[in-house]
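In response to reviewer comment 3 from the previous cycle, which asked for concrete evidence that the modeling workflow produces usable outputs, we include below a single protein chain processed end to end. The sequence was submitted unchanged, and the resulting structure tokens are shown without manual editing.
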Amino acid sequence: MNASLNEELTDPRSGAALYRDVIAYANLGVHLTASEVDHRTSAWLAARLRPLGFETSYLPFHLPQFFARDVRLEVFGRALECVPQWFPCWSSSPVRSPVRLTHC
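The workflow returned the following structure tokens.
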């Protein structure tokens, strides 16, 4: 194996290694602050950085957080996976609204 290929496979800064990190990060799940996935992500990131010589620590903080249990977006009869990016108001019935396409 030539030296540059060996480096590409083993150097954590190589494109291949960085791409593997992106895939691993994405495979952890939806990264909402204070969620179980967020905690697993912090542990995974610390485990990746420590062998590279970085010192890591956790800084816990409290925050009121909303964790949606059932969120659906339906467009023209097709259900799409979605995650709200704000603190939505709670409703005991579905919220329905027309979607309008706009062009910038």
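The two ends are 51 Å apart (CA to CA). We consider this sufficient to address the reviewer's concern, and the full set will be provided in the supplementary archive.
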